[in-house]
Design a protein that fits this description.
Strand order of the largest sheet: 1-3-2
Oligomer: single chain
Number of strands: 3
Structural class: mainly alpha
Distance between the termini: 124 Å
Low-confidence stretches: none
Shape: rod-shaped
Helix content: 55-70%
Largest sheet: 3 strands, antiparallel
Amino acid sequence: MASSPIATALANIESPSRAQQDKPSAYKEVLDLIRSSSNSLHISTDLSAFIDSILGETLGIVAARPLLASAVDAIKSITSTEDRIVAGAHALLALESRVVSFEEQDALIRETLADAYQEQDDYVEAAKMLEGIQLESSQRKISDDSKVRTWIRICRLYLEEDDTTSAESYLNRAKNLLYKVEDHELNLMFQLSQARILDSRRKFLDASQVYHSFSFSMALDEEERTRALSSAIICAVLAPAGPQRSRTLGKLYKDERTPQVAEFGILEKMFLDRLLSTVEVTKFADKLAPHQLAQTADGSTVLAKAVIEHNLLSASRLYNNIGVSELGVLLGLDAEKAEEYAAHMLEQGRLTGRIDQIDGMIFFNGSEGSGERTSAAQVDMAIARDLRKWDIKVQGLAEEVERVASMLQAQSPDFVTGSMVH
């Protein structure tokens, strides 16, 4: 309930005996009284009563609009977040049946409430407030920049709650108008939101490229650029091992800024195809976000899978062949699981070689995978190539034996004759 002085003043203005032309100025005086009042306990209820009065039957729409805009400014100035939410929520409820006539004021109230909810870390409620803003309206002209700014803000609010599905839907709306936006800051916000969605969806290679591009922006301060570069390295490390990741790691490794970031050690080892130890992996895991430590379908974490695949690729550079059991020891897995990882990478073309399941051996070609799935024809070609190599070696050995026999025949014919088996 409004305080007694405000309730009395509003009742006087609403009185039928009050001249209509005097009412707007009288309402302004009441609003000034509310704003200057030292009694902050009643400010939200006083403003609610004021809004109910101006939206009643005493004023026309044209006269009510500027007064409502001034009331929204008063709501924004409330120090207490709770009081701001109470007054703003009441204003939205009062406008619910007349929102078509007060779209601009409705948008201002929703933005004010979104700010208040965001201060309380209630990101979903803040996003819902902004979703209610009419951006496609015939009543008022809304610039493309304003639309994109609102959609990107909603996207970022949902990302704070890891709701990538809702975030991506608003990012896609912004993408359709982004080519019309000249505001550099908005473009940067779009790139960052895009990178975070790709990261959350575990499209780590794409996310790494966006983060790396983002890290070059001179519109950001040094700390933000360094953070973006660190995120680019983390995503590259978590990406599936293969030729695409190798190219991304190479680009990051050659960036002259990377030795300054904490993740450079693991980046260097991965780029140079060195095996990673458990201690290094554990230390790196402490820096990861929850979604980057989530479990995959086979029960392992994203990081564990990335490290296993990296160490398997590193092993292919060190050895021409290795037993499945020995590979399991090297990767910290049982033999069956090690063979499963190798088969999966061979099938996807991220590793080149073949598996001999009878002898329990894996043979590596030593070359980098193409990144394309291996077909049955490619497997047959690989086997035929190995057989040709074997034939050439057998032929070479036979020719060498024949050459030695010919030399013995020429230099010691008696010895050859005596040693010949009949």
